[in-house]
Design brief:
Layout lengths: L2 E5 L6 E4 L4 E7 L4 E6 L9 E6 H4 L1 E6 L2 E9 L10 E8 L2 E6 L7 E4 L8 E6 L5 E5 L19 E6 L9 E5 L2 E10 L2 E8 L4 E6 L2 E5 L1 E6 L4 E6 L9 E4 L5 E9 L2 E8 L4 E6 L2 E5 L1 E6 L1
Antiparallel strand pairs: 1-12, 2-11, 3-8, 3-12, 4-5, 4-11, 5-6, 6-7, 8-9, 9-10, 13-19, 14-15, 15-16, 15-19, 16-17, 17-18, 20-26, 21-22, 22-23, 22-26, 23-24, 24-25
Pfam families: DM9 (PF11901), Methyltransf_FA (PF12248)
Protein name: Farnesoic acid O-methyl transferase domain-containing protein
Length: 293
Amino acid sequence: MPIELQTEDRLEYTFFPNASGLLQFRVRAPNDAHIALSPSASEATPMYEVFIGGWGNSKSVIRKNRTKPDVAEASTPGFLNPDEFRGFWIRWESGLISVGHEGNAAPFLEWRDFEQVPIEYVGVCTGWGATGAWIIEEARGGAPAMGSRGNFSNVCWVAARNGEVPPRAFAGGEDNGEPVYVARANFNGGLIPGKLVASHGTAYVPWGGQENAVPEYEVLCDFPGNWIACSGGNVPPNAVTAGQSEEGEPLYVGRVVHDGSLTVGKVQPSHGVVYIPYGGTELGFQDYEILVQ
């Protein structure tokens, strides 16, 4: 059964257990619907807060540990309404926090924290002149696919290093007869999708115009997905979210044939291309294949 509650203009959270990785709710408020994601039933450190319709119902943010600056923000004028319920979802998985509208798979607010705080409780409140009515869906084990693009709950990344290939690694390409595996790595403040070539003893990620070798990486494993044709920044809603740029933009897995090699790289929607690491450089292609579920 859904949880129905009222919140006063007090900025005091009401907490309830939710370790499912997904919060689905509807809220009726003029502004400032606040949600806390916490490891305990209190305002703890570390913890995250999501403010929807803050600053006079003009923008939404993600905040960590109740301190500024906010780690992510989006312009969201009119997202809340004092006379009708508006539906939203919040998802957290592998340190990625995504916020979106009910019925829309694409998040309007997203940020990755490499600390990966374990979330066990969710709290809600209103303030700054607002009271709220909430309808919160029952927490369920395993989040449905309506969450952020890529449905992280079905994606397995295994840590490896120095050319190691984990069992059941997903091969997304080929170079001179050798499998090229889908990999990702932390690099210059981002989590960047790229390729693993085992014989080279390293993975590679495209960044800053270069093919960058990264000896420590993660490999996509146990993955049943498919590749579909794509162009520009038209990322399909079931694309696999594999990381994010240093500025917080979600990144996806793409591939393209170049110089006789089927090479895996990153899709950066705002640039309208897939970037592949190849021959020491970062190469961009407008037409490519993208990995989907």
